[in-house]
Records
---
Amino acid sequence: MNDARRAQRGDLAPEAVIENVRPSVDAGRFAAKRIVGEPIEVTADGFAHGHEKTLCTLRYRGPGERDWAELDMEFLGNDRWRGSFTPGSPGLWQFQLTCRVDYLESWREGFARRIDPADVRLAARIGAQLVAQSLARASGADRERLAALGRTLETEQDAAKLRAASQDATAFALARKHAPRDAQCETVAFPVAVERARARFSSWYELFPRSASGEPGRHGTFEDVEERLDEIAAMGFHIVYLPPIHPIGRAKRKGRNNVPVASDGDVGSPWAIGAEEGGHTAIHPQLGTIADFRHLVRGAKLRGMEIAMDIAFQVAPDHPWVAEHPEWFRRRPDGSVQYAENPPKKYEDIYPIDFETADWRALWQALHDVVAFWAREGVEAFRVDNPHTKPFAFWEWLIAEIRREHPNAIFLSEAFTRPRVMHRLAKLGFSQSYTYFTWRVTKPELTEYFTQLSQDDSREYFRPNCWPNTPDILPYHLQDASPAMFRLRLTLAATLASAYGIYGPAYELCENRPRDPGTSEEYLDSEKYEVKHWDRGDPASLAPLVTRLNAIRNAHPALQSDASLAFHDTDSDHILCYSKRSGSDRILACVNLDPHNTQSAWVDLDLAALGLPEDASFTVHDELSGASYPWRGRRNFVMLDPGRAPAHVFSVIA
Amino acid sequence: MNDARRAQRGDLAPEAVIENVRPSVDAGRFAAKRIVGEPIEVTADGFAHGHEKTLCTLRYRGPGERDWAELDMEFLGNDRWRGSFTPGSPGLWQFQLTCRVDYLESWREGFARRIDPADVRLAARIGAQLVAQSLARASGADRERLAALGRTLETEQDAAKLRAASQDATAFALARKHAPRDAQCETVAFPVAVERARARFSSWYELFPRSASGEPGRHGTFEDVEERLDEIAAMGFHIVYLPPIHPIGRAKRKGRNNVPVASDGDVGSPWAIGAEEGGHTAIHPQLGTIADFRHLVRGAKLRGMEIAMDIAFQVAPDHPWVAEHPEWFRRRPDGSVQYAENPPKKYEDIYPIDFETADWRALWQALHDVVAFWAREGVEAFRVDNPHTKPFAFWEWLIAEIRREHPNAIFLSEAFTRPRVMHRLAKLGFSQSYTYFTWRVTKPELTEYFTQLSQDDSREYFRPNCWPNTPDILPYHLQDASPAMFRLRLTLAATLASAYGIYGPAYELCENRPRDPGTSEEYLDSEKYEVKHWDRGDPASLAPLVTRLNAIRNAHPALQSDASLAFHDTDSDHILCYSKRSGSDRILACVNLDPHNTQSAWVDLDLAALGLPEDASFTVHDELSGASYPWRGRRNFVMLDPGRAPAHVFSVIA
């Protein structure tokens, strides 16, 4: 197509098309998730009608950039293309693909097959026309080189010399560089949410600051928490997550074990946020001051860790907003403020916020300002309480707004709810999500659920964060359970998921007493309603196992992402076997799901998933016990005594 | 949310969202394909945050309609919804989904769980507010009914009576009908290309009219074709497809067996379209007149069949357009018109059309007018020659334009090319597509390919039409092959695909002589370049088998679509077993892929795919041989002698 014709093509659609772009979430409506410093591989189908060759380019730009960087994609055959770029900073990146007919290469390909000299000479003139189009867009040395090429193709009579000219790859690369591109097709811009590595690989430790004091009976403070940081860092955690640290409401305060009326001295639930001392940007006076908090945040950073805040957008009746912004709350027909309820249950110590209030813009801004306040205090990780009870549009807006100023902000969605709702929250921006791991116990349950999490399309946006317990959930299988069961669930969480957490010290001390055995997942004497004193010096503490597991996680890149997770067959319902891989780093876990009895199994390894040949000989080194075994081929034997260890966590040395 | 607040919500996004809409092709960019009179089932995820109940509606409209019909969707649990509508006419239909929070049902659900009478009374007032919103939008009897309900909820003091009022399903259905809907979310409109049933279920018979004369040496005419119609109808075909019927170019005409220079009396290829007698809207004088053609079209319709035209957008050098519209063709640098070529091969009897010419609007319109011309002559099926060498945008535009005036038009894409290109053509509107069946021979090849065709997402838009041969393709496995091989390939095509065709009488007469054995798929003495005389009375003709297979197809709805295709294991590499189902109609085919030897196998039936219980006893009735056998459970035995029959084509009687 020559220039004059191109000028007249008007709204004639480009010949080339692009389909099947990856990564994409809902055709580009939402961002795929990636990590700073790791190449983003983009693939697509790009093609035109007929036999013309096409050329695809990948454009990308970082947060706030207007200009695109551009590179040629690699042709994989069968109309498939691949390209990649490595985001160097966190934030919202974008990529876009273009595809166009490569008239120059199409001409060269046909030209090489021509035999008749007269035909060769005539076809060379067509090549000259194509080169002239590039020449018109080139300058300087490029222009001279293209002019020379064009002259040869235009005037040379010797077919052999013409053929030689057509094979000048350098000159034709130049011609392609300057070729007209007005008839190319372009995709929409696909967003990629690029986060720091902690968004994918993180070990969380939740603790109540008020129970951090070493002395029974004394209310803990930030200073007490700071004194515990060395110990938590030694256990290998990355993120210390604190339940809400704000003033706790006094009106309708709940007592110990959630009884409706508090007794004198009852401290209330930290999630009943707000009192006369202030609301979501204030600090509970008994914990310390903002200066103490800053000191704690710095203290965590000094130890290579960070503090995560709890974002719970609800208020106690005496939260200052209730008086200052009555329009942010629903009213009952009798004029009273609507409390939280799940009929016939009433939660009169909590007022939900009305996100659809007529004054929603001011409300949303105020909520944004809460998060921004703590982000400015150096907090970069936020665990969001019950995000599924607030509008989707709010979270999508809030997270984008906060990330614009604070691109390192990580948001963990505590939404234990229906799967579609959990996925939607992940799509719209949450970095990580709580999962159903908490209730997945059997071999088929674990296999099915983690295969889905790691292999479904949702892995582009849904990053699981697995918790064996939380302050709200002492699952039935942990109620009155043995330390072996606690070891087992801990080991599963730490090796199945690159992000996991425990609520401690309850977990490592195997706190197993339910308030209502078998009918509720509440802890007896729950820390949610009282100050606890934990005997962390208990020799039965699982802290050594926690420490060992986190050390393995920190040393092995295989455990730092989830996409490579593969399950291997075993001939026992009790032995679960799975592996993860990162390059030549391979972890193979064989877990005994029976906490009561020794179990053994023949394992049938999927050697391809491990990147090993069928008849491979290799060593498996148990990172928990320190023992090594020579293994060979697919079939190998394991035996596990739950009294000694829940699992082999092998590194595979090929 | 009350009205005053809603009025102020401004651009506050709706709470509810919709995801995962089916059927959709590329997120609604292209139309899914369906058939007139058959319900279109639409599914989606529709949900909001929190625990509010939602309500999804399905809207749809037919071609040219401005208003949507609307119906409530059925809730399937787990945030899934289903609805369906039945298109009553062919054309481009659209559907759209809405989802909104159902405040009324959410209120009723919570209300039913309230116990405390004071709480019940207060909550009833909230219900009254919701009913008032509906009341404001209702009139007549609805208004009166809602007013009464509102009064009860507002003023009644007796909790039992309030509970009874809240359980009045009829009144609340009215309230829901009139509830405000300004905060609902809506999807884009998803297109569905609705075609007549022949677009999915059709048996094609291709013949060259010029060979239709009964007398050796005489050029056939439309009248001769008409005389053959009874016989073709008796064989059970639906569509008689004629290669181009236009004047054949004389300039550079090719001779028999495609030799470069024609001899006197050589008739040329019908695909070299155009001569002094006219172009794409003219009729080759030796075939007859337009009146004869009209008579033929009517004759086919009288017999329940139809004539398909060949649309080949290319011209012979003496096509009138070459002189009238020189700008529609590319020029070589010496000023000559660019002929078709695949260097070093030249096809100087064919000029491609330049679809990207500066005059493309006039050109495209002229090409459209060609199709429209024949559509006005009553032709409703078009087999398009090499659509993959013309721009995608052209076909998308052309097919939509033609269908607007002629919604019954069926387009068959003859694109034997790369898979992505074939799929793109199907997406943009072709009703059916030629396939790789022509070259899929072994059990794994057939199983993989047909599983993909019938089960992949592409089944929403790609409808296979399977041909064992074409005038261009005598595949290697049919070259010098026995009648048993011809019977085998015919049986596979007719039972694997709801649309299939043969090029006859070459096929039923087992024409097996290649021009260049093993190196080309061209027939010896190809009908493309000469008039043939076929001995249709040959007692070895496969016409009886063709007749039987088409009769089975016409009698069994199971064979009239592809989505239910399922393969069943057998313990022989030679025995292929598959089934199709439509309600209680079940066809089970067991095919011997070895045309030389008797083969037997144990078949391991997937009884679930057949809709049968695991221990079912049933009768299989061979529709080819007439024999019946009692079968039981999964494992059953078959033995097939290729000298007698290529297959059992069982109907399964449970």
Note: Residues 1-7 of chain B have pLDDT under 50 and may be disordered.
---
Amino acid sequence: MTMNKVAVFRKEHFNAAHRLNNPLLSDAENARVFGKCNNPNYHGHNYELIVQVTGLPDAVTGYVIDMKVLSDLIKEDVLDKFDHKNLNLDTTEFATVNPTAENIAYWIAKNISNCYKVRVQESEGNTAEYEV
Amino acid sequence: MTMNKVAVFRKEHFNAAHRLNNPLLSDAENARVFGKCNNPNYHGHNYELIVQVTGLPDAVTGYVIDMKVLSDLIKEDVLDKFDHKNLNLDTTEFATVNPTAENIAYWIAKNISNCYKVRVQESEGNTAEYEV
Amino acid sequence: MTMNKVAVFRKEHFNAAHRLNNPLLSDAENARVFGKCNNPNYHGHNYELIVQVTGLPDAVTGYVIDMKVLSDLIKEDVLDKFDHKNLNLDTTEFATVNPTAENIAYWIAKNISNCYKVRVQESEGNTAEYEV
Amino acid sequence: MTMNKVAVFRKEHFNAAHRLNNPLLSDAENARVFGKCNNPNYHGHNYELIVQVTGLPDAVTGYVIDMKVLSDLIKEDVLDKFDHKNLNLDTTEFATVNPTAENIAYWIAKNISNCYKVRVQESEGNTAEYEV
Amino acid sequence: MTMNKVAVFRKEHFNAAHRLNNPLLSDAENARVFGKCNNPNYHGHNYELIVQVTGLPDAVTGYVIDMKVLSDLIKEDVLDKFDHKNLNLDTTEFATVNPTAENIAYWIAKNISNCYKVRVQESEGNTAEYEV
Amino acid sequence: MTMNKVAVFRKEHFNAAHRLNNPLLSDAENARVFGKCNNPNYHGHNYELIVQVTGLPDAVTGYVIDMKVLSDLIKEDVLDKFDHKNLNLDTTEFATVNPTAENIAYWIAKNISNCYKVRVQESEGNTAEYEV
């Protein structure tokens, strides 16, 4: 039997403050468009992050990728930047990009090597997913 | 970098009674085919509903769709019809269609505008998903 | 070191239809008091049931109670009666008693031998607990 | 059979930014004591809130308390104050009190009428509980 | 309206011991490559298994597949072999194949008839998925 | 207002193999008493561990205990001993004590300083709790 590609998923978490706002809009427009998420003093989330890597398992290890290696990659590339931070004020990534779940998923997917897909759960009800 | 489409997911819930039954079958056949789910007095579930919408984030908002808007759409198109209802007796949708998780997922996917995929979890172990 | 009592917990599930209604109230009063839960055609839930038994672990087994035995007890005393049933129509227990989560927890706690406490989760947000 | 008190639990959520800091300590001491939670630009959480009310079920309704009423109470007394807010900047409650999970649980328990116990889950790993 | 294929998912669990090891590597290499998972005395997991079947709902039943039938298939083909077993010592499947989550997902997907995709969650953070 | 004691809870995980067996019983008796859990080649679990500490929040920090400190304590006293281990073969604690969830909860509760109560979830359905 020949094996197709296998997908593996690593789940991690980070906690951050953020504010949704577009400087090209007026304050009133921002308040209308983003509602409670536009609070100028920020609010926050426990972000759940699932990173998917896809490939053939290595002949020697049986791993698509060592999950310890993947976890360390996520730590270096994402958690060290975003965990316990204010996404708007403490990161260069979201200094000028609106930190919606969509944009966070996009940025993470683009910045973890070998990442195939990223799922970012911002709250119990809201999730975004980006496939590279 | 150019962005691919992003998928967003909104989770909602409704509680409903239902009975699985096919009027073209005899009572004995219905009992055999549907087992406990054929109870003539109905049983019920907490349905978990995940609606997926896919698109490019809006240039102004960074949203594929405002989750508040999506939540309101689901409320109007699904929850107001099905929540705390008897799917067989209280809805036109399942008056003649058997309310299996498959058929519920299909109906919802077809009736929420912009919906790309719907996942309906009927119980901890059983889920159905329909992609439009 | 002497050991205090240990609590063990067994989680099970059942799916049922029910209606909240008090025959001593008028229809209008029932509708006002119980809202959507008063639907005459019933609605339903996935009930999650956690049964707690408390005691000293047996010297031979190290068990407070064999979880297989506890699971079988719950199956016989509760699930066989309530699973995939209409609590109001199919059970003697709730033919005249309103099947609120409170009353369900009470009935279960009183009818499982050795039960110390019962937790009944009716929906993601609503739970009742009865200690014998 | 006489019934003991029954406990009911209502789960709600709010999302907020906060910073742990004690103005009586130096910046260096605050950084040492509170670590990442001392970030001057704030971080945030999805707070899960479980409010417990205990009593005898009402003879007419079978409810300890109508969960809709309890949910509305929590909304008015807690969520309208804290949801999508910066706990340090946007609330009077935590303007001078450090918004640890312990202090949040205490405040909520003291300010919801009839509340018996409150559980505040700040993150997957960290929870605090206060019994009035 | 014509219906596309519907996906249904059945979740099951098994508990097993295993050890990651490649007999072609030296002990030192195995220890380096597999770390804690190379413990010669084994460690273990609660494996969560989600089996996906895809098809058009049957015209008579409205089912893609009867979930009771799918559950029985998984029990016979997977759980009876792996549950409460040592994957390395008690199974022929993993006597010579390294029981990584990737290889477990692959084996299951190949050995359940009609299976379209299998997801194996080995721990809260680590999951593998194989599509036939 | 005076504050009562506050309870805080820290959740951690470990993965281990174990076998339930009492050397004072015959093989046949062990097989009968412990069923599948008596497998001589071991099986395994993802253990979820919740450690409760109770006290008055510190006047300076607002913490009952710094959760980072509690997490480190659990790591040193429990996870470093049990994670990715065979409880029967690799630990002194369960070399002669049967590693039931009851006995694991008891041992942990007795060996973490300041611990008030420990909850050990062995599988989705089975949990044990010990209060010191």
Note: The domain at 6-131 of chain E is CATH 3.30.479.10 (Tetrahydropterin Synthase; Chain A).
---
Amino acid sequence: MRSAVAQHPPVGTVLESEPSIMSGPPSAMDSRPISCPLCTPDSVATLWSDDHFRLVKVVDPHLPGFVRLISQQHVAEMSDLSATAQRQMFRLLVAIESAMRVNLSPDKVNVASLGNQVPHLHWHIIPRWKDDLYFPDSIWSAPKRSPAASSAVTVVEVERLARAETFWKSVPEICAAIR
Amino acid sequence: MRSAVAQHPPVGTVLESEPSIMSGPPSAMDSRPISCPLCTPDSVATLWSDDHFRLVKVVDPHLPGFVRLISQQHVAEMSDLSATAQRQMFRLLVAIESAMRVNLSPDKVNVASLGNQVPHLHWHIIPRWKDDLYFPDSIWSAPKRSPAASSAVTVVEVERLARAETFWKSVPEICAAIR
């Protein structure tokens, strides 16, 4: 049973970048690359941040709970970070994955650092379900369901979104405890 | 300029599983899931292994140097591992990425744990180039080049493959030094 609406946005746009960040130019005071959309934090999407990283929610009705962990430093690869920042990053990834599993019970978690389109280190942490639009393929693959079927949000997805809200609320405290 | 041959294998087959492993059933002596293709190591593809992880090369002429880091334990997610194994895993990922960058100078490195098709923890560490078949999309996306163009290996790819051989030879010593 499908209830109204929410067009699924094109994967290439939504899942490899942050659209709301894309729309705002970086500050002229900033020495970071003018063209990098991830060098300007989106305060609305940001769940938590410190000097090294920020966690942002990705509001995709078909992948409720999707988050990205973004380096505050403009580097392309994890091996560009200091050993301290690498350690923190990995602890954050594990803690976020754990909280996602506890709150959302996804069938699988996908964790990926690609950055081919936006070469500023960021990790996608994606809850996956066997009935989601792409499963068992990646979210960057062609959808398994028809575009018509993908244009509405299901009752199951609405329930998951409610749980995603709980996850998003719980995760800042978890991240803040990690050094 | 394109020289002969090597058909590009379907992404879904090659990049989300290990075909040569798929063909061999796991030992009946093993208590691990009979159906899991990653529970039986492929000795030909394995570059290095210890009690926790093994590193295997993925021979794809269009992505020379591609490797996978596979958990020796049949678990689905990184948060299922012990803290000790998690720490080793992350150090391995950084070290492998660094060695890949030094040896291959890719335009980007993609690092991903998906496992939707084979829910046994494994990481893809993929060198990416701006002229590869999928760039700037993921390797799980539809290719950017036509199938006709993708059926031959370019001179540039042959040169990269030679450097990939050097990378594959160097990486076991690097992994062995990490605890």
Note: Chain B has one domain: 26-176.
